[in-house]
Amino acid sequence: MKIKYDPKKIIVYILTIILSIVFFLFANQLITSGESVLNRSSDHEYIRGEVKHVISSEKNDYGDIYTTFTITTPSGEKTATQVTSDLASENIRTVKKGDDVIIVRNTGSSQYYFSEYIRSDALIILGIIFALMLIIFGRTKGVNTILSLAFTCICIFYVMIPAVLMGKNIYLWTSITCVYITISTLLLVNGANKKSLAAAVGCIGGVVVAFIIAKLTDLFINMSGYIDDGSIYLADLPYPIDLKAIIYASVLIGAIGAIMDVSVELSASLWEIAGKVKKISFKELFLSGMTIGRETMGTMSNTLILAYIGGGLSGVLLMVANSSSLLFLFNMETVVFEILQALCGSIGILFCIPLTSAISGVLFRTN
After folding, report:
1. I need a surface site. Which of 14, 17, 105, 180 has the fewest CB within 10 A?
2. Percentage of residues in the chain having pLDDT higher than 70
3. Are residues 153 and 262 in the same domain?
């Protein structure tokens, strides 16, 4: 079967890619002025290599295990030491021949120490498998999904994170990031059409509501921004960072995926209904959208809550294990932050449903 190509879709697709690249370069230059956000003044040297030989492994009086080994690196063979606590020896194994590891030494010192195992290679393979599965099952849509995911990651790590670390307005750059992610994803995956427009308006509207709810809630819960140890270190960076703004940036970035999922599902369903029915009114489309939305809102809210709990499960377990009062536990800022994320994201989903349904009803109606 001969594949038909729509010239307009191809033009929109190419323009989206070109404009995205221009946006990344311009925004990054505007934010950083050419300055690197990485810490280049580190007094540590990291080297990757393969373990060639394990020389010895000894335990001291305190139960610490000292394993000495040689490693083959691009600059030659090095000797390093791995120090493993007896308390963690069950989960952190000692190095063995053939392991790919990272060793580190302080500048000015000749002694190398084990730092980490190379884990990124396995993740790269898993990512390739994921990409191949997307292409196999999704074909052209799969390729577009991969590209939109890549652009989303680039926007976050090349634009948003540098903006935060350089002390820029977090609210502004988080909003720009969310709008870009929404528009670029829909244009690349669905193209420029009424279906994408309805989904974009519904998604952005839901995210805006999630942000407003979070800001209004802050009037009563008195968040400081110090939600974990990382917040303390962020406060000591050279550029001043608004820690409270980080909270609301987390709410938006965490919610946009689930809200976009709901808005796209709704607009796609209503688009399909409108295409199958010769005459359909705004009211019929709106009510159909609300019915579909009711079926999805429960699972999407669960998705958000479970994602936040799963992401911070170790911290949740630690806090519960060391807390003797539920009153104190549910008023800890860390716990409040997780609940705030889940509730604001869920409210954003709830608002997204009628908004997407209404916009779809206006755009898709034929009667």
Report:
1. 14
2. 95
3. yes
